C-alpha cells in the first residue's frame, strides 16, 4: 500500500519535471498536484526499517522495558554483536532487577562501565547478541603446541548441563562423558574442580572457626568468596563490608595455583610450560582468572608472566569445541578424572547449587571443631537448599553452641542480606552468596534454555547434583584422600604459611567507580 | 511547533541503544568487518557514540558523546543546496529528498559539523545523514534513538521547552558547565547538549561561528556558476537530473536494495 503511494508520487514528480522542460500540458496539471506534496514523508530518506512494538506510536511515553546494557568492548567476559541486537530491553531487565547492577550506580561515570561479569544477560538475550567472549582458539592453539602441557579442570555445575547441548534432558549427569570428551580433545590431564572445592571448604571452614574464636581479627558473619560475580558486586556496592569476605580463593583459582606448584613439582614439569584451562558455568570466571593478584604460582617460583589459570571456557564453549570435532558426547564411555587432583566428595558436588557451599562447609566445620562425624541432618540440610531467595538455618555444634547461617542467590537477594549486615542487625556467623539465581547451575556460561531461564530447568540441574551427593561414597570434604595427601605432602595444614600464599587472596575497593550511590 | 532533543552527556551510559535504533529504523546496513559499529558517521551510520577519556578533578572519567546531524535552525547545507533537496522543516528536522538531489555535494562542504555523507561506492549515490526520524516526528513520536534510550540521556520535546530545561539544569546544578552547545552554535540547532566537562575537551567543534551560516553560504553561492542564466544549460541539466532520479528509483525497486 505504502509502496503504491510512493510510486504514484514518483510519477507525478517526474511529470512535474517534464513540465519544467515544457514538454506537455498534461504534465502541468499532474505536476501541480504533486508540487504541494513535496515534504510528504514517503519522499524522505530513512524510516525504511522497524523497531520493536514497544517503541512505536507511543506519543513520547517512555517504554517500560527499553534499551540495553552497556558493554565495554574490552570486557573479558561478554561481547555483543550489534547486528543481532533488537533492543528488546531484556538484558537491561535482568541487569537492573535480578542483579541490581544497571541503574544502581551514580552518573556521570568514572572510568569503568559497571559490570560484575555474571553473564546473566547472555541467558536472557533472545537473539544471543550477547555471548561469552570466545576463547576456544587459545585452547586449540595450546593443545596443538607440543611444548605445552595442557591441563583442564571442570566445575561442579558443568556436569549437569553440558548434556543439554547434545540433546539430553536438563540435569543429565554426564561427568564421565565430559572427561572422555576432554581427553579426546587432546588435554594432557583432566582434573576436577571438586578437588579444590573440597580444599576451599578446608580453608574456609578453618577461617570461620578462627573468626569465631577470635584467633584472627576479622568480623562476622564471614562471607563466601567463590562466586566472582558476587565478589565484584561487593567490591563495587558494599566495599565497607569487604572485611567480611573470606580470604579464600575460589576453587578455580585454588586449582590453578596448586597445578603450577604442587602438580608441577610432582610431575617435574616447568610451570611456564603448563597451560591451565578451566571449564566453568560462569562468564565471571574469565574476569577472575585475569585479576592481577591471581598469579601466586609466579611468586612461588619467583618468576614473571605466569598466570594461575590461563584460559577459562564456559560450558557453551566446551560444547562448541566438542561439536567442532564431531564428537557425540552422549555416545562416549564414562572415563575418570586424573590423579592427583581428580577426587571430589559429595560436599564439593553441591557447590554448583545455591546452598551447597554452606552445606558442605557446615559438614566439615562440625568435624574440624568436634573431631566427630556430623549428624545425619547435616547431610540433608534442606533449609538452605533450592530456590527461595534468602534462606537461613541454625546448626547446633557441641562446644560452640548455635551456628547461624544464611544463603542467598541472585544479587538483588544479596542486597537484603548485605543491608542487614551494614545496619548491624545480622544474626549470622556465615553467609553464602551466589551471583546467579539458583547458583552456578544457572551461571551465565551454561547452555541457553528458555528465555528467561525457568525454575524448572534450574531444579532439574539442582536435583541432579543433590542426587549425586546422596550417592557419593564420601560426602564431606575432610574425607577426600587427595586433600589429605596435598596437606601432608605440600601445604601442611589449612591456613599454613604456604596455604595463605597460594590459596588466599585480597580484594579491591571499587566503591569510587560507582560514585557511592548505594542500594 | 519546532521540536528538538536535549542530550545530557552526564547521563549517557554508553550502551549504544540509540545507534542501533537508528540502524534498525532506517534499515541501514552494518559494516561487515566488525561486530560493533564504527566510531565515525558514514553513509550508513547516521549516529555514533564515541568514548572520550578525559579527567575530572584529576580523576579519570569517561564520557560518551552521541553525535549526529544537529539540525541547524538555519542550515548551511540547505542554503548551499540550490535544488532544495535539503530543507529545514517547520517541525525541526532538516530533511533530504533524494528526488531533488543533483549530487553536487555542496551540502557536504557547507556543513560546519561535517555531517552529510555521500554514498561513494554506489552507482547512484545519495547524500545520507540523520533525518531526525522526520516521519516519526510528524506522527507525534520521538526519534527512534530517543525512544530507546534507557538512561534518560536524551529528551525530546518542543525546542523552547528543552532549551528552558537545559538552562534550568545548568543553572540549578553546579556540576554542569555553563554552556548549552547548540543554543548559539551555527546560529542555533534543534539538538542541544549539556555537559559537566567543557565541550572543547570532549571533541566538540566549539569554534564554529554563532552567526547563522546561510549568511555565508549565500554569498558563496552567489559566486557559483549562474546555471539559471542559460536556458539551454538548464534543460540539459534537467535532462541529466531526471535521468539520474529515475535511475535511482529503478535501483531502489530492485529486490534487495531496500
Ligand atoms: S537482550 Fe540482546 S537483543 Fe535484547 S536489547 Fe539486550 S543485547 Fe539487544
Ligand atoms: S541510548 Fe542513551 S544511554 Fe545509550 S548510548 Fe545512546 S544516549 Fe547513551
From TrEMBL, chain A:
Phylogenetic placement of the source organism: Bacteria, Bacillati, Bacillota, Clostridia, Eubacteriales
PANTHER family: NITRATE, FORMATE, IRON DEHYDROGENASE (PTHR11615)
InterPro entries recorded: 4Fe4S_Fe-S-bd, 4Fe4S_Fe_S_CS, Cytosolic_Fe-S_CAF, Fe_hydrogenase, Fe_hydrogenase_lsu_C, Fe_hydrogenase_ssu, Fe_hydrogenase_ssu_sf, Fe_hydrogenase_subset
SMART domains linked: Fe_hyd_SSU
UniProt KW Iron-sulfur keyword: yes
Name of the encoding gene: hndD_3
Keywords: Iron, Iron-sulfur, Metal-binding, Oxidoreductase
Protein EC: 1.12.1.3
Positions of the 4Fe-4S ferredoxin-type domain: 76-95, 106-135
Name of the protein this chain belongs to: NADP-reducing hydrogenase subunit HndC
Source organism superkingdom: Bacteria
Keyword Hydrolase tagged: no
GO molecular function annotation: ferredoxin hydrogenase activity; hydrogen dehydrogenase (NADP+) activity; iron ion binding; iron-sulfur cluster binding
UniProtKB/TrEMBL annotation, chain B:
Membrane-spanning residues: 220-241
Coarse class of the protein's main subcellular location: other
Key word Phosphoprotein present: no
Domain of life where this protein originates: Bacteria
Alphabetically ordered keywords of this record: 4Fe-4S, Iron, Iron-sulfur, Membrane, Metal-binding, Repeat, Transmembrane, Transmembrane helix
Stretches assigned to the 4Fe-4S ferredoxin-type domain: 3-33, 92-121
PANTHER family found in the cross-reference section: FORMATE DEHYDROGENASE, NITRATE-INDUCIBLE, IRON-SULFUR SUBUNIT (PTHR43545), IRON-SULFUR PROTEIN (PTHR43545:SF4)
Protein name per its UniProtKB record: Formate dehydrogenase, nitrate-inducible, iron-sulfur subunit
Name of encoding gene: fdnH
Amino acid at each position: 500500500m505504502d509502496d503504491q503511494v510512493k510510486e504514484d508520487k514518483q510519477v507525478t514528480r517526474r511529470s512535474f519535471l517534464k513540465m519544467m522542460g515544457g514538454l506537455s500540458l498534461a504534465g502541468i496539471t499532474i505536476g501541480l498536484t504533486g508540487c504541494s506534496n513535496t515534504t510528504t514523508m514517503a519522499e524522505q530518506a530513512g524510516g525504511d526499517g522497524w523497531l520493536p512494538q514497544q517503541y512505536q506510536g507511543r506519543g513520547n511515553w517512555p517504554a517500560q522495558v527499553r534499551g540495553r546494557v552497556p558493554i565495554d568492548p574490552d570486557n573479558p567476559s561478554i561481547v555483543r554483536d550489534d547486528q543481532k541486537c533488537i533492543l528488546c530491553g531484556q538484558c537491561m531487565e535482568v541487569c537492573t532487577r535480578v542483579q541490581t547492577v544497571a541503574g544502581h550506580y551514580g552518573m556521570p561515570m568514572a572510568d569503568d562501565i559497571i559490570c560484575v561479569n555474571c553473564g546473566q544477560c547472555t541467558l536472557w538475550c533472545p537473539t544471543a547478541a550477547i555471548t561469552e567472549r570466545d576463547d576456544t582458539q587459545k585452547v586449540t592453539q595450546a593443545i596443538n603446541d607440543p611444548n605445552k602441557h595442557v591441563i583442564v579442570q571442570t566445575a561442579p555445575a558443568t556436569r549437569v548441563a553440558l548434556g543439554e547441548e547434545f540433546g539430553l534432558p536438563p540435569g543429565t549427569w554426564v561427568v564421565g562423558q565430559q572427561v572422555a570428551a576432554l581427553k579426546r580433545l587432546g588435554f594432557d590431564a583432566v582434573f576436577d574442580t571438586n578437588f579444590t572445592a573440597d580444599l576451599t571448604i578446608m580453608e574456609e571452614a578453618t577461617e570461620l572457626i578462627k573468626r569465631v574464636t577470635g584467633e584472627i581479627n576479622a568480623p562476622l558473619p564471614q562471607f563466601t568468596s567463590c562466586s566472582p560475580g558476587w565478589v565484584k558486586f561487593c567490591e563495587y556496592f558494599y566495599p565497607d563490608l569487604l572485611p567480611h569476605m573470606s580470604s579464600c580463593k575460589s576453587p578455580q583459582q585454588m586449582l590453578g595455583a596448586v597445578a603450577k606448584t604442587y602438580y608441577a613439582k610432582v610431575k617435574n614439569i616447568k610451570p611456564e610450560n603448563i597451560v591451565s584451562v578451566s571449564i566453568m558455568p560462569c562468564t565471571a570466571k574469565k574476569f577472575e582468572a585475569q585479576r592481577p593478584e591471581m598469579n601466586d604460582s609466579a611468586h612461588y617460583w619467583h618468576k614473571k608472566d605466569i598466570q594461575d589459570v590461563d584460559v577459562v571456557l564456559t560450558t557453551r564453549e566446551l560444547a562448541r569445541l566438542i561439536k567442532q570435532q564431531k564428537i557425540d558426547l552422549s555416545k562416549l564411555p564414562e572415563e575418570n578424572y586424573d590423579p592427583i587432583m581428580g577426587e571430589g566428595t559429595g560436599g564439593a558436588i553441591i557447590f554448583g547449587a545455591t546452598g551447597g557451599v554452606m552445606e558442605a562447609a557446615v559438614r566439615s566445620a562440625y568435624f574440624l571443631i568436634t573431631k566427630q562425624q556430623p549428624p545425619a541432618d547435616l547431610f540433608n540440610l534442606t533449609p538452605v537448599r533450592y530456590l527461595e531467595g534468602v534462606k537461613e538455618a541454625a546448626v547446633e555444634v557441641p562446644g560452640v553452641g548455635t551456628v547461624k547461617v544464611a544463603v542467598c542467590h541472585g544479587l538483588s537477594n544479596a542486597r537484603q542480606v548485605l543491608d542487614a549486615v551494614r545496619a548491624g542487625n545480622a544474626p549470622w556467623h556465615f553467609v553464602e552468596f551466589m551471583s546467579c539465581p539458583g547458583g552456578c547451575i544457572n551461571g551465565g556460561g551454561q547452555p541457553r534454555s528458555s528465555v528467561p531461564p525457568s525454575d524448572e530447568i534450574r531444579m532439574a540441574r539442582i536435583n541432579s547434583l543433590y542426587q549425586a551427593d546422596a550417592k557419593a561414597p564420601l560426602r564431606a570434604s575432610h574425607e577426600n584422600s587427595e586433600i589429605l595427601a596435598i596437606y601432608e605432602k605440600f601445604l601442611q595444614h589449612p591456613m599454613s604459611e604456604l596455604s595463605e600464599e597460594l590459596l588466599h587472596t585480597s580484594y579491591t575497593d571499587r566503591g569510587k567507580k560507582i560514585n557511592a550511590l548505594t542500594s | 511547533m519546532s521540536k528538538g532533543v536535549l542530550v545530557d552527556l552526564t547521563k549517557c551510559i554508553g550502551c549504544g541503544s540509540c545507534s542501533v535504533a537508528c540502524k534498525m529504523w532506517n534499515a541501514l546496513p552494518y559494516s561487515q568487518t566488525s561486530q560493533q559499529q564504527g566510531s565515525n558517521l558514514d553513509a550508513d551510520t547516521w549516529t555514533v557514540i564515541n568514548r572520550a577519556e578525559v579527567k575530572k578533578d584529576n580523576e579519570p572519567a569517561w564520557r560518551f558523546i552521541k553525535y549526529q546531524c544537529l539540525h541547524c535552525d538555519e542550515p548551511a547545507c540547505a542554503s548551499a543546496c540550490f535544488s532544495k533537496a535539503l530543507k529545514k522543516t517547520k517541525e525541526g528536522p532538516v530533511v533530504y529528498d533524494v528526488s531533488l538531489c543533483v549530487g553536487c555535494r555542496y551540502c557536504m562542504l557547507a556543513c560546519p559539523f561535517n555531517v552529510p555523507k555521500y554514498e561513494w561506492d554506489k552507482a547512484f549515490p545519495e547524500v545520507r545523514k540523520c533525518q531526525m526520524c522526520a516521519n516519526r516526528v510528524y506522527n507525534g513520536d520521538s526519534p527512534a534513538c530517543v525512544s530507546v534510550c534507557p538512561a534518560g540521556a536524551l529528551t525530546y520535546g518542543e525546542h523552547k521547552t528543552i532549551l528552558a530545561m537545559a538552562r534550568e539544569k545548568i543553572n540549578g546544578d553546579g556540576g554542569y558547565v555553563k554552556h548549552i552547545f547548540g543554543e548559539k552554535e551555527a546560529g542555533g540547532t534543534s539538538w542541544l547538549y549539556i555537559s559537566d566537562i567543557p565541550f572543547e575537551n570532549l571533541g566538540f567543534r566549539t569554534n564554529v561561528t554563532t552567526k547563522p551560516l546561510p549568511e555565508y553560504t549565500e554569498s558563496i553561492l552567489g559566486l557559483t556558476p549562474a546555471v539559471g542564466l542559460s536556458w539551454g544549460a538548464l534543460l540539459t541539466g534537467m535532462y541529466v537530473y531526471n535521468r539520474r532520479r529515475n535511475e535511482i528509483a529503478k535501483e531502489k525497486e530492485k529486490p534487495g536494495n531496500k
